[in-house]
Design a protein that fits this description.
The protein has about 200 residues and is mainly beta. It is built from no helices and eleven strands. The two termini are about 30 Å apart.
């Protein structure tokens, strides 16, 4: 079930959603709840969101996430800021059992495209203290309104070794966990087309 606020509330937007867990005899098991509220005024935009997933990490192991994001278009560049609180892995298999994330980024128009810069800090609040930092840079070259070329490079600094089954944050293939030969840098290049 989902409800969206009307779209003409002086820049306010919001939604509430709920899904049943589809478990016979229980409306709560495996259920999910989410809500968000946002505000847009001129070059400024912000959103606050909350998600709750019952039994996301096994029976009785629920997950919650709070997200705040904002951006501001300064004209010469657009700045971004995100802050996320993770309690339990709301996405199964991800090591977010108790952590906070901070992202600071910018998009800068250069020529027919834009450069993209970002920094992410993950604060692992568990006893393992598997903190991580990611630095990334990229460029998007617009061929048309619907097609663009892109390239990016990212590097992660981890407190956890890359052989750890959990707690290692990575920029390569997500299935490569535990691979002692895997690095902590990645580069991408490709074409994006909007249909």
């Amino acid at each position: 079930m989902k409800y969206n606020l009307p779209g003409s509330l002086a820049g306010l937007e919001g939604e509430v959603s709920y899904s049943f867990g589809e478990v016979p005899g229980s409306t709560n098991t495996n259920s999910q709840f989410g809500a968000s509220i946002g505000y847009t005024r001129g070059p400024f935009k912000a959103k606050l969101a909350y998600a709750d997933a019952q039994d996301a990490n096994g029976p009785g192991k629920n997950a919650r996430e709070v997200f705040f994001g904002a951006k501001y278009d300064f004209g010469v560049a657009t700045g971004y800021f995100n802050y996320v609180v993770n309690r339990g892995a709301i996405v199964p298999g991800t090591p977010n059992y108790k952590s906070e994330d901070v992202l600071v980024g910018a998009s800068v128009p250069i020529g027919p495209g834009r450069a993209i810069l970002s920094y992410i800090y993950k604060n692992d609040r568990t006893a393992a203290n598997n903190d991580a930092q990611q630095f990334a840079v990229g460029y998007v070259y617009d061929l048309s309104k619907r097609t663009s070329l892109y390239t990016s490079y990212a590097h992660i600094r981890n407190n956890a070794p890359n052989t750890a089954a959990t707690g290692f944050y990575r920029v390569w293939n997500a299935n490569d966990v535990g691979n002692a030969g895997a690095g902590n840098s990645a580069m991408s290049i490709g074409v994006n087309h909007i249909f």
